[in-house]
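A.,

Following up on our hallway conversation. Structure tokens first:
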């Protein structure tokens, strides 16, 4: 059975040490100069001025947006729960460099294989849905590299009966190029 194509960004599911994700987040500001809407599940990067923005493919990652601070004057922050482009606000970010995320592989023809576990991979920063509030960030199966720089490292395949290796497979990853690493600081 083919995997369902339902990207929803990065979802924290545990820690590299074996524990479950404890829900710890940090609040970061987004300024009105941010030209891209931010959705829960989007990979986030830190700007030099202390604000955050969605991370570009191949860029250094601070963490993943897991929530938007509600601003009653901006309806989208309440429902469906995203921060529109060019809107200042605050977001909640899971920043631990040992957090494991579940994420969908993209649907191009170069599918990941179990032999890619341990390799590095970049993400695709797809535009989220203003209707559902769902992120469209996925990992880019054509960007797998055994060595070198990439935003994430593949930890394993999500072990579920409805998840087969191939197009739109769900994988477990951790941030590889993290802002908290000394070499990746801004």
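Then the amino acids I'd put at each of the 186 positions:
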């Amino acid at each position: 059975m083919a995997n369902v194509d339902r990207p929803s960004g990065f979802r924290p599911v545990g820690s590299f040490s074996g524990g479950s994700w404890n829900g710890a987040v940090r609040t970061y500001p987004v300024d009105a100069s941010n030209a891209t809407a931010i959705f829960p599940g989007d990979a986030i990067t830190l700007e030099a001025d202390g604000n955050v923005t969605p991370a570009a493919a191949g860029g250094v990652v601070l963490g993943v947006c897991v929530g938007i601070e509600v601003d009653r004057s901006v309806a989208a922050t309440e429902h469906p729960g995203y921060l529109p482009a060019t809107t200042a606000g605050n977001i909640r970010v899971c920043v631990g460099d040992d957090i494991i995320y579940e994420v969908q592989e993209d649907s191009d023809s170069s599918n990941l294989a179990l032999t890619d576990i341990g390799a590095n991979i970049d993400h695709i920063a797809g535009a989220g849905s203003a209707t559902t509030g769902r992120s469209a960030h996925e990992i880019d199966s054509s960007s797998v590299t055994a060595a070198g720089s990439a935003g994430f490292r593949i930890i394993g395949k999500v072990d579920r009966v409805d998840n087969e290796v191939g197009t739109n497979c769900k994988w477990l990853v951790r941030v590889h190029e993290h802002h908290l690493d000394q070499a990746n600081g801004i």
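The chain has a mean pLDDT of 92. Curious whether your intuition agrees with the design.

B.
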